[in-house]
Specification:
This protein is 32% helix and 17% strand. With 352 residues, the chain is α/β, with parallel strands linked by helices. The chain has 2 domains: 64 residues, Alpha-Beta Plaits (2-Layer Sandwich), CATH 3.30.70.1140; 256 residues, TIM Barrel (Alpha-Beta Barrel), CATH 3.20.20.70. The strands form 3 sheets. It has an 8-stranded parallel β-barrel, surrounded by 6 helices. Strands 2-3-1-4 form a 4-stranded antiparallel β-sheet. The protein is elongated, with a radius of gyration of 21 Å. The structure holds phosphoenolpyruvate and manganese (II) ion. The site of phosphoenolpyruvate (PEP) has 9 residues, from loops.
Length: 352
Amino acid sequence: MIVVMKVGTPEVEVNRVCAELETWGLSPEKIVGKHKVVLGLVGETAELDPYRIEEVSPWIESVLRVEQPFKRASRTYRQNEASEIKVPTPNGDVYFGEGHPLVITAGPCSVENEEMIIEVAMRVKAAGAHFLRGGAYKPRTSPYAFQGHGESALSLLAAARTASGLGIITEVMDTPDIDKIAEVADVLQVGARNMQNFSLLKQIGKQNKPVLLKRGMSATIEDWLMAAEYILAAGNPNVILCERGVRTFDRQYTRNTLDISCVPVLRKLTHLPIMIDPSHGTGWSDYVPSMCLASIAAGTDSLMIEVHPNPKKALSDGPQSLTPDQFDQLMKEINVMAKVVGRSSEKPVAIA
Ligand code: PEP
Ligand code: MN
């Protein structure tokens, strides 16, 4: 349920309404939007009479029920206003969200050694990326496959951050690793396989770094938003949703089926920023450029692209990784497309 306060409601009145609702056993959450203040009420609200709440203050504009099972993640919860997630990086603040320029995240599937991670960081930075994404802890289908260098790779990511000024995104697979990863990473990734690891979601929701929540490979959009709800409910409002392809019947020509239609669907349902990962979504580097452009056209807020200096020798996900040269070319195309849809960071060119 949400309580929408009228424009210009004095703060003391908002606080008085909160205090009154607390005496009813509720925990109102104050959401300060660009135009209005909204109070979110989550919990045992089924029996509450909206008219009784309206009587608490003449400054209450309306009281609405959030119909969906995901409450904090729903678009209604923020009065239809998209959330923006600010991530401070050495190169400056980067914003994820509907009203902001497209954000590009790139890097190798796994951090393999210092030389390669610094090389990729410098190359993707020069091409215009905002974040370096590289795995230290890797969720692999086979226990015999390369599992990531773990803690030692975290210090290599820290070195790449210093060298390039890029923000760092890396995956957390296990609850005890959260704190040490959060010391290095600017955004914590929860991978597809852990999307419904509820104890991990609860713990990651208790720390302050933004979270990139990948869609489970068989997750419905509702499952995914309910997973985001766990993080939001634990106190972390900064969740980015990342589509990375879902399982369908064809595994011969594509690794997964990239669900670009999730962009408009999510836009309708949630205020959270959206990222598309065409690398895992298709599994083949040949298909990454066209899917990047299609995702921008569909309205994504950001992209994740795997880049490796020598994909043939990659320790994981080589076939879907672009070379730095291919990434340079793709960034040129991405910039053109971003301009077309008004999501470019460059100022629009004035037409005489
Ligand atoms: C990854 O991002 O490298 C990864 C393992 O992705 P996913 O969890 O989507 O499979
Ligand atoms: Mn990968």
